[in-house]
Specification:
single chain; mainly beta; Jelly Rolls; eight-stranded antiparallel β-sheet; two-stranded antiparallel sheet
Length: 120
């Protein structure tokens, strides 16, 4: 078991108004927190990872070739690997997403041992 303190996760800003924090990764999945500023978003893209997410706070609009959906706290989704998709923040949001398999580009760089992370 791996237990990590979310408040110590390193945050990166891959796009304006988007903060990404990788919380924990296993052999077959990765959990990430995204903090989206009002009006920010992620442009249309695809990748070879299955992606599932849930809104913790705020509202976002998910976009795919099938349509657009406004999702709020407690709403969840699954995006198949290879599907085009985008997301827009309406008034700011916090979302959590899982990726399978883990995205190597989202894994934190090796560094000193995190005292708030336990491998059991």
């Amino acid at each position: 078991m791996i237990v990590a303190a979310g408040h110590n996760a390193r945050s990166e800003s891959p796009l304006p108004g988007v903060a990404r924090s990788t919380l924990v990764a296993g052999d077959r999945m990765l959990l990430v927190r995204f903090d989206l500023a009002p009006g920010s978003g992620v442009p249309l893209h695809d990748h070879p990872y299955e992606q599932a997410g849930v809104v913790s706070s705020g509202t976002i609009t998910l976009v795919s070739p099938q349509g657009e959906w406004d999702v709020g706290p407690g709403d969840a989704w699954v995006i198949p690997a290879g599907e085009l998709h985008a997301a827009r923040s309406v008034g700011g949001a916090v979302i959590y997403e899982m990726f399978s398999p883990p995205r190597a580009d989202y894994l934190p760089a090796a560094g000193p041992e995190d005292p708030d992370r336990a491998v059991c």
